[in-house]
Amino acid sequence: NIGFLRAVLDDPAFIRGDLSTNFIEERPHLLEARVGADRGSKVLEYLADVTVNQPYGPSPVDLKPSEKLPQLELSEETPASSRNSLLELGPEGWAKALRDAKELKVTDTSFRDAHQSL
Q1: More confident position, 114 or 74
Q2: Over the stretch 29-69, which tens digit does the pLDDT of each residue have?
Q3: Which of 16, 40, 42, 102 is the least crowded, having the fewest Cβ atoms under 10 Å away?
Q4: Cα-flanking dihedrals φ and ψ of residue 25, to 5°?
Q5: Statement: residue 5 has pLDDT above 90
Q6: pTM of the model
Q7: Cβ(27)–Cβ(18) below 8 Å
Q8: What is the dihedral of CA 61, 63, 68, 69, to 10 degrees?
Q9: How far apart, in whole angstroms, are the C-alpha atoms of residue 106 and residue 91?
Q10: What are phi and psi of 35, to 5 degrees?
Q11: In sequence order, which ranges of the chain are alpha helices (DSSP H)?
């Protein structure tokens, strides 16, 4: 994408502001922009990969996370939750119950936030 953006920014028509909705279609050479040997980006890509995937190198221990999980009794009934209340009361009844509640209500937005970051 960097080569394409550089080609667009260097295009004389773009510099003049002579643009239309067919700008790219009229200039197919912009899509064939040459990619230079960008060693800096390769180093940054490597550092990003190591930072995210193995910040401390390979794990020194052969740990299986599944062995650390507590045993789960599947025959027990699922505890009451906000979702159960929503299904029982409906959206309006649930919202009223939430507004009438005196205790603090907390929600986890991690999944929503991560999804919006994509």
Answers
A1: 74
A2: 888 877 666 677 788 888 888 888 877 777 777 778 888 88
A3: 102
A4: -60, -35
A5: no
A6: 0.34
A7: no
A8: 150
A9: 18
A10: -100, 120
A11: 2-10, 12-16, 39-53, 65-68, 82-100, 110-117
